[in-house]
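Work Package 3 (structural annotation) set out to generate three-dimensional models for the target panel prioritized at the project kickoff. During this period the team completed the workflow that converts sequence records into discrete structure tokens, so that structures can be stored uniformly alongside our sequence database. As a representative example, we reproduce one entry of 100 residues exactly as it appears in the project archive.
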Amino acid sequence: KHMMSKEVYLPFITYSGNICTRKDIGEMDEYTKQPFFGFATELLETAGYRPQNDKYSSVSTGIQSMVESVVSGTSIDDAVKQYASDTAAVVGEENTVKEK
């Protein structure tokens, strides 16, 4: 409770640059006047929790590798195909969704 109190949490997130997860503090002027904080906090409205799944870290690493390969010159289509293949190998083809 202490760490999430307004007196502790607001100075911490503004100093550290973290995005606020408390709606009441996210609406305070002291928070919203910080560059980028207001916009970033709005993104939380559509955010979700990471799945509680032992394979998620492999999927997350795959996403990072896919982005890195595009930055390094691989075409987006090739990177996505490789990611789809790698992900299916990790989680099983039956646990993937194919774009139509």
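Residues 56-92 form one domain.
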